[in-house]
Design brief:
The structure holds two protein chains of two kinds. By secondary structure, chain A is mostly helical. Chain A is built from 24 helices and no strands. In chain A, helix 10 (about 225-235) packs across helix 11. By secondary structure, chain B is an alpha/beta fold. Chain B has a domain at about 1-75 and about 155-255: Rossmann fold (3-Layer(aba) Sandwich). Chain B is built from ten helices and ten strands. Chain B has helices at about 40-50, 70-75, 95-105, 110-120, 135-150, 165-180, 195-200, 220-225, 230-240, 245-255; strands at about 1-15, 15-25, 30-35, 55-60, 65, 80, 155-160, 185-190, 205-210, 210-215. In chain B, the strands form two sheets. A six-stranded mixed sheet of chain B has the order 6-7-8-3-9-10, sandwiched between helices. Classes of the chains: A mainly alpha, B alpha/beta. The interface of A and B includes residues 12, 26, 97, 100 and 101 of A.
């Protein structure tokens, strides 16, 4: 009845929502398991957000930090999944010829966006909302207002991004925009990690709103999240003039949201996006000659070079792959900064295990970053193109080993060079820094070898994203890494590092172990990949 | 009364002109072959005529309705098979057809019966409950053809409808199009398979670089040009006839060490 009064075809809205939700639950990337996992992850992230809520020196600052995190995370999610959550360009092509009115499409899309954003804002905000409602005595009104503020801000972020998206596409080439967005997402990740890891939060109980001693800086009101946080201040009857103005501004934003998205959730806009996305680039990407690259020369075997070339091309042109690789950097940076905040790194050759709690963070960042990277090299949206490995006369075992070499030379080596610099500055001894980094390189290589020994023999970029086929092997490798960091490294530092001869012996044993593992790995891969080889194919270099 | 009428249609994308001053008309019961080399503006024209893309200027009417002012009336009377083959592949073929029937507000019983018949016609009955992500290109094209036919439209817009189909399906579609035209349905057919156009179409329009090059009934056209086949005539019009020397060039390049 209401739908008809609004000029909306309710039956069509139900049909459209049914198709989109089914798409969410059925596709490889987003399936039911993946969606539930994502909600659990957001809930855990939400638990971490209660730290600034409860521990900030002032209730308003805590609320602002919490809502800023919500805005950043919603922004991140929407940027990553824009074409699925907000507007799918393929809608124009599939729905364009169907008799669906613009208004019906708008309402269906709006309902979908609300459901999607609502679900993950709920998971993210629930712990903090409960904290607002219960941490300073039971106050359900405060909790409810905090929830409303989180939903309204989430929707505001979506509408701003939606309204800017096509304008950006018009000014920036799609490939460049994707690149820019990728970096924006990395910055957002930095901000999200940094938000609740870097500042010092005092978790001792205090009255909500602090003792009135906290001076709230004026610049905080430049952040729209602070405007919505003013609602929470209102809810406890603490409405100063500044809070009233800012809270009023946030209220004014609500109709603006509808205005912003009215024209954006439309088939015409979807068509516009599709046209902009498929428009040919004005200036084609610079093509570098494979043979001329110095970096590529480091890969000695042709199969390894082929994998390196593919990985480099994927990194350049596959937005998701690049993001998944770059997403490791904030973790490393934040762990590194935390180590510095705890007092910096000390020379293990001089101080032994004195600062192991700080170094532990750096080792964790270095070793654990290998897990997602190892998985990412196996997965791609273009996984069907991996047939080429089976149709060319390459050695599939060497192709798989090529992934390990790519990880080692393109990721571990540059990272360890950077770490050597940091060690050199922290230790005040370049030689010790080089020795320690070399030992870490040897250990990382052993971990990678074990990783490929444990993992299924999959060719590079040959699996659909998030196929989960290697979850068990990743868990096993994570255990190996934890044992290595918590047992092997302390043993090395405590008993091997103090004596020169024992260090040389350790390098020799490590090298021999690595050599043996490489042989074992090659043999195991050759055995496992027999089914991938075309029987009559001659063995020649590709 | 024309099923499709277009007057001075024009569409530009930035500085590139996709379609310029295009006028055409197609009668009910006619099969129009809409031809042109890649990038000639065929798909853009089809999008404008089906209400997917607004023209910059000019006007068009399909089944008696203005495509810009009355797009829903137009869409209730047309069936479209896009060249891209875009569909929601996470659905099964049966679900997709049911969904299209809902959007067209077809009575459920009639829609189910029609969908079952169409799936049978295109040999998809056994796989109708499988998700289309596992379908071949030809199978997806069959589903799109079935979806386009499901609402029993007055006008069919088909962009490369035979691409990817097996021999049997091609024959089924060709027979079907002839019979649909015989009962008064209009078919707007974009295809690169000139042999099919020659056998099926009653009228041909050739587009080149966004402009209409020719618009004639097919038999008159062949007679006028003195060409033995549509393929020969097409290469003459578009100046793409010399392919022997290109093939020689490729062979020479392959022989170089």
């Amino acid at each position: 009845m209401i739908a008809r009064a609004l000029g909306v075809d309710g039956e069509q809205v139900r049909a459209l929502l049914g198709v989109w939700f089914r798409g969410d639950l059925r596709t490889e990337r987003s399936g039911l398991r993946s969606s539930v996992m994502k909600l659990v992850l957001y809930f855990l992230l939400g638990l971490a957000l209660t730290v600034p809520v409860v521990g900030s020196p002032d209730g308003f600052i805590g609320a602002t930090v919490f809502l800023t995190a919500v805005a950043l995370i919603v922004g991140l999610e929407v940027l990553v999944e824009f074409h699925r959550v907000v507007l799918a360009p393929e809608d124009a092509e599939v729905l364009g010829p169907q008799p669906v009115s613009s208004r019906t499409y708008f309402f269906a899309r709006l309902a979908y966006v609300l459901a999607y954003v609502g679900a993950f804002v709920t998971a993210l905000a629930l712990p903090s909302v409960l904290a607002f409602a219960l941490a300073w005595g039971i106050d359900l009104k405060r909790g409810l207002v905090a929830a409303l503020a989180a939903y309204a801000l989430g929707l505001f972020v979506v509408s701003v991004i939606a309204s800017m998206y096509a304008s950006l596409l018009r000014r920036i080439r799609p490939d460049r925009l994707r690149r820019v967005l990728g970096y924006a997402q990395i910055l957002l990740l930095f901000a999200v990690y940094g938000l609740f890891l870097l500042p010092s939060w005092d978790l001792s109980p205090r009255p909500f709103g602090g003792g009135g001693n906290t001076e709230i800086p004026g610049w905080i009101y430049l952040n729209p999240a602070a405007w919505f946080a003013s609602w929470i201040e209102w809810s406890r009857g603490n409405g100063g003039i500044r809070t009233t103005i800012m809270g009023g501004l946030a209220l004014l934003l609500l109709p603006l949201i509808l205005v912003l998205i009215r024209d954006r959730l439309s088939l015409a806009y979807a068509q516009q996006l599709a046209t902009l996305l498929h428009a040919p680039s004005a200036s084609p990407a610079k093509a570098e000659l494979f043979e001329k690259s110095l970096w590529i020369g480091a890969f000695l075997r042709p199969e390894h070079r082929a994998v390196a070339l593919l990985a480099r091309a994927q990194f350049r042109y596959d937005h998701k792959f690049r993001l998944s690789v770059l997403a490791v950097l904030p973790m490393i940076a934040v762990f590194g900064l935390l180590a510095l905040r705890l007092g910096g790194l000390q020379d293990p050759f001089v101080h032994g295990l004195a600062d192991f709690d700080r170094s532990l963070l750096v080792y964790l960042a270095l070793f654990l970053s290998l897990l997602p990277l190892q998985a990412q090299l196996r997965e791609s949206d273009h996984h069907e193109a991996a047939w080429v490995f089976r149709a060319t006369p390459c050695d599939p075992a060497e192709v798989i080993l090529g992934m390990k070499t790519v990880l080692l030379l393109s990721f571990v080596l540059p990272l360890l060079l950077l770490l050597t610099g940091i060690f050199a500055v922290s230790f005040g001894d370049l030689w010790h820094a080089v020795l320690h980094s070399t030992m870490l390189f040897l250990l990382v290589h052993l971990v990678l070898q074990l990783g490929y020994l444990l993992a299924p023999a999959d060719l590079p970029f040959s699996l659909p994203p998030r196929s989960g086929s290697s979850t068990a092997s990743m868990l096993a490798l994570a255990l190996v890494i934890l044992v290595l960091i918590l047992a092997v490294i302390p043993l090395l530092v405590q008993y091997i590092y103090p004596r020169g001869w024992s260090l040389v012996l350790a390098f020799a044993v490590g090298g021999a172990l690595s050599w043996g593992l490489e042989r074992l790995l090659r043999r195991r891969l050759r055995w496992n990949v027999r089914s991938l080889v075309i029987p009559s194919a001659p063995r020649i270099h590709c | 009364m024309f099923a499709i009428e277009a007057h001075h249609l024009r569409k530009r994308f930035g500085s590139k002109t996709a379609v310029e001053d295009l006028s055409l008309s197609v009668r009910y019961g006619e099969i129009l072959g809409f031809l042109g080399p890649n990038g000639a503006g065929k798909t853009t024209t089809l999008k404008m005529l089906t209400g997917l893309l607004p023209p910059d200027s000019g006007e068009a009417r399909v089944a008696g309705f203005d495509v810009v002012r009355q797009p829903l009336e137009v869409k209730r009377r047309i069936g479209v098979v896009p060249e891209s083959g875009a569909l929601y592949a996470h659905l099964t073929a049966a679900e997709y057809l049911q969904w299209v029937a809902t959007l067209h507000r077809l009575p459920q019983d009639a829609a189910e019966e029609r969908a079952a018949r169409l799936l049978e016609l295109f040999d998809l009955t056994d796989v109708r409950h499988q998700r289309m992500t596992g379908y071949s290109k030809g199978m997806r094209k069959k589903v799109l053809l079935a979806a386009a036919l499901l609402p029993n439209p007055d006008v069919l817009f088909l962009d490369e409808p035979l691409e990817g189909l097996d021999v049997h399906a091609v024959r089924v579609v060709k027979d079907l199009l002839r019979q649909l035209a015989a009962v008064g349905k209009t078919i707007f057919l974009c295809s690169h398979i000139l042999e099919v156009v020659e056998r099926l179409c009653t009228h041909v329009v050739v587009l080149h670089r966004g402009r209409k090059l020719l618009d004639r009934p097919l038999p008159a056209l062949l007679e006028e040009l003195g060409a033995e086949s549509l393929e020969e005539a097409f290469h003459r019009w578009t100046g793409t006839g010399e392919t022997g020397s290109i093939a020689q060039e490729v062979l020479r390049a392959l022989e170089r060490p």
